[in-house]
Design goal:
The structure is a single chain. By secondary structure, this protein is an alpha/beta fold. The chain is built from 17 helices and 18 strands. The strands form three sheets. Strands 3-4-5-2-1-6-7-11-12 form a nine-stranded mixed beta sheet, with helices on both faces. A six-stranded parallel beta sheet has the order 15-14-13-16-17-18, sandwiched between helices. Helix 14 links the parallel strand 17 and strand 18. The chain is globular.
């Protein structure tokens, strides 16, 4: 942690649109909320910047850090303020950019998971505000670590600055790129004839993620497998050519989970606690989940859980086709999540058709999510693509065996064809293949000695942030070296 051979700790500024527990939409928030404390434990001087969204609880706002932050773009200056809170036991500083016209809104991104009409302006402002905060608070980071498309303009701005710092840009999901019509350029403070425009324009549109891929010092994504997949046309979402061009600068680092927060031995949301050496509490959790979901109390029928966004990416349309056959294995099925209205409706219909076998919860509820992880026997993730996936890690921590499609981080973390299997894997998202994987899981469940060994093996997996955090420190050192910094 000593850039350029100095004795000072490495200083890193983390920039993300959502950070748990302050505001959460998806897995990005979990990463942005757990990786900085893991870095701090390694001696990194890390700070986090995020918008003050309406979703941030008032009691988490913290203290005022700056009453007036001047955020300057060509032809305009806006004034924001900054609050300072803390993240984790390490007390990582979190700076919340307060600017009501852009961030005091009912949804973090936009209605129904889409974008607000002025999303380009919102996140151009956020990038400039994060950069303005650096001199205003005297932060002086060695590296700026940006996450997903809402921060995509920041590496471009830094690349064009004569005093720009090294930037690391992490792609959490290439399917969301921040694409907008070209005529938005003047509204985000970019001259259509400028060098900045050449960085942000891609195939006839403004593309925030393309700008970051072109501009960041180094790139990363959230599993080794996904880093390779996104360089192919099948997974590259149109950006595979840009990514192949930066292959030497692209790294895959598997996400982790906070094993203190995801521990069935201490989780306060559970009706009973358990651990790998004392599993009786898991049966209590299963019975409690069946009761809570209005399902028959039956320890001999496996409960299959799914906690997910109901979107095409997650393969939930195929799972809906499979479930009428799967319940005959037999299984009980519990789902928690929200998403596309058509998928929500299809699962509500299934619940009405199979009230004794299925419980569908179209909402997000953190406590219920934890009870599903703990009370289920099997956890299903039939994703078409999955950059990393955290659900399979959380399920294994809670002794719930995953059934996954072999893609991205799912393929990196779950193995079946091994002397030490940790789940059930199918290849290619076909209904029959998914059903066959569930059948294999149910057969294994009926073989109690085999199942107990499989559960114990799942719970023995180490998905903590420790090793991944060390790899990020190495990546920051690489970014500094490639940027040519001398400290």
């Amino acid at each position: 942690m000593s850039p350029g051979g100095s004795r000072q700790p490495m200083r890193v500024l983390f920039v993300a649109n959502e950070v748990a527990p302050f505001a959460k939409v998806g897995g990005l928030a979990d990463v942005a909320g757990s990786l900085p404390p893991a870095l701090a434990e390694l001696g990194v001087d890390v700070s986090v910047v995020m918008p003050l969204h309406q979703q941030v609880p008032t009691d988490a706002h913290g203290e005022s850090a700056l009453d007036a932050l001047e955020v300057t773009a060509p032809h305009e200056t806006r004034r924001a303020s900054v609050l300072e809170a803390e993240l984790g036991d390490a007390g990582v500083p979190v700076y919340l950019i307060r600017y009501g016209p852009y961030f005091d809104r009912p949804e973090v991104y936009g209605p129904g998971g889409g974008d607000y009409p002025d999303s380009p302006q919102r996140y151009a402002f956020f990038a400039r505000a994060a950069l303005a905060l650096i001199p205003a608070l005297g932060l002086d980071p060695h590296v700026i670590h940006c996450h997903d498309w809402p921060t995509g303009l920041l590496p471009a701005f830094e690349r064009l600055s004569p005093t720009g710092r090294p930037t690391v840009y992490t792609i959490h999901n290439l399917g969301y790129q921040g694409q907008f019509d070209l005529d938005v350029a003047p509204r985000i403070g970019i001259d259509p004839a400028s060098q900045a425009m050449r960085l942000v324009q891609f195939e006839g549109r403004i593309n925030y993620m393309a700008a970051a891929i072109r501009s960041a010092t180094v790139l990363s994504t959230v599993s080794v497998r996904y880093a390779h997949e996104i360089q192919t046309p099948d997974f590259g979402e149109g950006l595979d050519g840009l990514l192949r061009g930066r292959a030497a600068d692209l790294y895959g680092i598997l996400n982790g989970i906070d094993d203190a927060q995801w521990d069935p031995a201490t989780d306060p949301a559970l009706p009973a606690h358990f651990s790998r050496g004392a599993m009786a509490g898991k049966q209590v959790c299963k019975a409690a989940l069946q009761r809570e979901m209005g399902l028959p109390l039956d320890p001999d029928v496996p409960v299959v859980g799914a906690i997910t966004r109901l979107v095409w990416q997650k393969g939930l349309d195929v799972l809906a086709q499979v479930l009428p056959r799967a319940v005959k294995l037999p299984i009980q099925f519990v789902l928690l999540g929200t998403g596309e209205p058509a998928l929500e409706d299809s699962y509500r219909l299934l619940a009405r058709r199979y009230p004794e076998q299925m419980a569908i919860n179209i909402r997000y509820d953190d406590g219920l999510a934890r009870r599903i992880y703990a009370g289920s026997d099997i956890f299903v993730m039939p994703s078409r693509y999955e950059p990393c996936g955290l659900g399979q890690m959380m399920s294994m921590a809670y002794g719930t065996v995953p059934v996954v499609q072999a893609t991205g981080g799912l393929a990196d973390t779950v193995v079946e064809a091994s002397a030490e299997p940790t789940g059930f894997v199918f290849y290619g998202l076909a209904a029959d293949d998914l059903l066959f994987a569930l059948e294999r899981a149910v057969l294994a469940f009926r073989d109690r000695p085999r199942w107990e060994k499989l559960v114990a093996r799942c719970m023995a997996q180490d998905f903590s942030w420790t090793e991944s955090a060390r790899r990020y420190v190495d990546l920051y050192e690489t970014a500094i070296a490639r940027h040519g910094c001398r400290r």
